[in-house]
Hints:
Layout: E1 2-7, H1 9-17, E2 22-25, H2 29-40, E3 45-51, H3 52-56, H4 60-68, E4 73-77, H5 84-93
Parallel strand pairs: 1-2, 1-3, 3-4
Amino acid sequence: MEIAVIGNSDAVIGFSLAGIKKAYEATSEEELINKINEVMADPNVGILVLHQKDYNRLPKRLQSTLSNSVRPTVIAIGTEQSTEMREKIKRAIGVDLWK
């Protein structure tokens, strides 16, 4: 199972330096959507990492699909407060790590 990252050049470089091989740069909304669809179809990807700002600019229908995806599990990271990751971890392991 592999981790994939889609985002701006800084994120892609950072994750690539950390050893993530499937790191894709996407600057426009169209590129972002195309790369997400490509990664979602890849059976080897278990986790997809996106920046929260990129996730927020996606169409609501795609956000819903990503939010409910089990494989790959989609994680939005960034400076914006989000309880989504907390809920996904809680569902996956059955324990709320923040309590």
